[in-house]
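Hi R.,

Here's the chain you asked about this morning:
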Amino acid sequence: MKYMNAKKVLPEKLIVEIQKYVQGETIYIPKPEAEYQKWGASSGGRQLLDLRNATIRNAFTSGSSIQQLSEEYYLSIESIKKIVYSHKK
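And the predicted structure, written out as tokens:
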């Protein structure tokens, strides 16, 4: 998050109105909820995790043990259990 000087981006009337509530403080103005993205949506991280988890579920269904999957994917046994017993398909 970068700092912006209000005088450079906001009209004077709006600055005067905001000064009625806040003066000399840093405020955060969030973007509209319609522009929010879920974690990993823009980087592709979410898709990679979904693919990894699907691969783990398939391996479990094909006979791999939770212990084997834990060692192969460097995840705890509890994490593997959460993945293989979740209802995502």
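The radius of gyration is 24 Å.

Let me know if you need anything else.
M.
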